[in-house]
Automatic annotation (TrEMBL):
Occurrences of domain Formamidopyrimidine-DNA glycosylase catalytic (ranges): 2-106
Domain FPG-type: 235-269
Source taxon at top rank: Bacteria
Official protein name in the record: Fpg/Nei family DNA glycosylase
Naturally occurring in which organism (per UniProt): Bacillus salitolerans
C-alpha cells in the first residue's frame, strides 16, 4: 500500500503534469470507486481546473476551481499513470480523467477510492488523522506528547494513522531498523534516548524515501526515472534472508499483529 513517501512523490510529480489543467472528460468503469452517482460526479468535476494538489497522510487531495475536493486513497494495489490512449498500462482503469492531450488513469481502485467532497466534508473525513511527521510543527516535544502513555508495540503504534499520519508496513520496519529498535518493543519500555532516536529516524527515513521516489514499482509517466527508486535502498523491508548492511546478520521476516515484519536480530534491540 502506498505510504507517505509514495503519495508525496505522486503529489510533486502530478503538480508538474496536471496542475492548472482542465478536466475535459471523465470515464468511470466502477461506480463503487466514487461516492456519489456518476452523472452528479461528472457534472461537478468536468470542466473544472485542478488548482491545488495536497497530501494528508496516505491521501491526496485534488482541489477544483469550484471549491470541491477530490479525496484519493489508493489502498492496496492502487496506482496512477499519466499517459494517453497509446501510452497506458494494460490494466483495468476504474476512473480516467481526460485533459485533452493527456489522461490521468486511476488503476486498481478495488479497495481504494476517489471521493468528491466540499471543503467541510474533506476536513471531517481527515480530522482523526495524527500529525504530519515531516512538518516543522512535528517537533521532538510534539512527538513526546503523543507517545506519552502509549503501551503498544512499536510497529503497531507507528502504523496507527491516529498516532502519526502516513506510516505503514514498509516504513514502520525501516524506521525501527534505522533507530536500532526491535518492532515488537513496547513504547512504554523506551528510554528517553531511544525516544529521541525513534523521532529522528521517523523524520530521516520518510524524507530519504521521498527523495528516492518511494517504493512504487511502476513509473507515474513515461520516462519517469524517480518513482520506485527506494526499492534499491530498503534497509530491511522485503529483504528476508539477505545480509544486514550494518552488522552482517541475516534479515528476519516475522508476523506481528497479522502484519509481515522485517528486522535484524543482530543490531536491533
Amino acid at each position: 500500500m502506498p505510504e507517505l513517501p509514495e503519495m508525496e512523490n505522486y503529489r510533486a510529480l502530478l503538480i508538474e503534469q496536471v496542475l492548472n489543467r482542465t478536466i475535459t472528460d471523465i470515464k468511470i468503469t466502477r461506480e463503487k470507486s466514487i461516492n456519489i452517482p456518476v452523472e452528479q460526479f461528472k457534472e461537478l468535476v468536468i470542466g473544472e481546473r485542478i488548482v491545488a494538489i495536497t497530501r494528508r497522510g496516505k491521501h491526496l487531495v485534488f482541489q477544483l476551481g469550484n471549491g470541491y475536493r477530490l479525496l484519493l486513497h489508493l489502498m492496496l494495489g492502487g496506482i496512477m499513470y499519466v499517459g494517453s490512449n497509446q501510452d497506458q498500462p494494460k490494466r483495468t482503469k476504474q476512473v480516467i480523467f481526460d485533459f485533452n492531450e493527456k489522461e490521468l488513469f486511476f488503476i486498481g481502485l478495488r479497495l481504494g477510492y476517489l471521493h468528491l467532497y466540499t471543503e467541510e466534508g474533506i476536513a471531517k473525513e481527515l480530522e482523526k488523522l495524527g500529525p504530519e511527521p515531516l512538518e516543522p510543527s512535528f517537533s521532538f516535544e510534539a512527538f513526546l506528547s503523543i507517545i506519552k502513555g502509549k503501551r503498544g508495540k512499536l510497529k503497531t503504534t507507528l502504523v496507527d494513522q491516529k498516532f502519526i499520519a502516513g506510516i505503514g508496513n514498509c516504513y514502520s520496519d525501516e524506521i525501527c531498523y534505522h533507530a536500532q529498535l526491535l518492532p515488537m518493543k513496547t513504547c512504554n519500555d523506551l528510554t528517553d534516548t531511544e525516544k529521541e532516536s525513534l523521532y529522528r529516524s521517523i523524520r530521516y527515513v520518510l524524507k530519504r524515501a521521498y527523495e528516492l521516489g518511494g517504493y512504487m514499482e511502476r513509473p507515474l509517466y513515461k520516462n519517469d526515472l524517480l518513482t520506485g527508486g527506494y526499492n534499491q535502498h530498503c534497509y530491511v523491508y522485503d529483504r528476508e534472508g539477505e545480509t544486514c548492511e550494518r552488522c552482517g546478520h541475516p534479515i528476519v521476516k516475522d508476523e506481528l499483529s497479522s502484519r509481515k515484519c522485517f528486522y535484524c536480530k543482530g543490531c536491533q534491540h
